[in-house]
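Translate sequence into structure tokens.
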Amino acid sequence: MINIVPPERIERLIYLIRGHKVILDADLAELYGVETRVLIQAVKRNLRRFPADFMFQLSDEETKLLRSQFVISKKRRGGRRYLPYAFTEQGVAMLSGVLNSERAVEINIEIMRAFVRLREMLLTHRDLARKLDALERKFESHDVHIRALFEAIRQLMTPEKPNKRKIGFLVKDRAASYGKR
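Result follows.
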């Protein structure tokens, strides 16, 4: 078994585009250990296996938006010269039949697990929010402290944006004077 990609890395490659959870062709190619053009060639040779709900090509506007977020390299810097393809969960599953390598099969298994974990997290979060709303309605007329508790729980449920940590370190102590007495 090839377990070379941490699940967290795969989860970070899943984007929400056009209401679908997708992974971009370049990211898939990197995971599979092939060039993007090789992956696209294999897909184009088997185009019947990839209907519109399995794979779609991004629009120029969507590509510009992703470029502005540094996900896709810029054309003028030697990057892509065509619009990227996005693969849904079903499209990724179909890739394992098109790319016939042990690595492709193992990576596909990990990607499918990442999609399932993401779906479970979203369902759990929605269910918890519904239950919290019901409890809040039940205790609506009660104490201010209970309302504060509900507000604190809601804040904990709100996903935080990851803090971008600065590289390096900060020394708060004054510099030591070496050799002076």
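Note: The mean pLDDT is 76.
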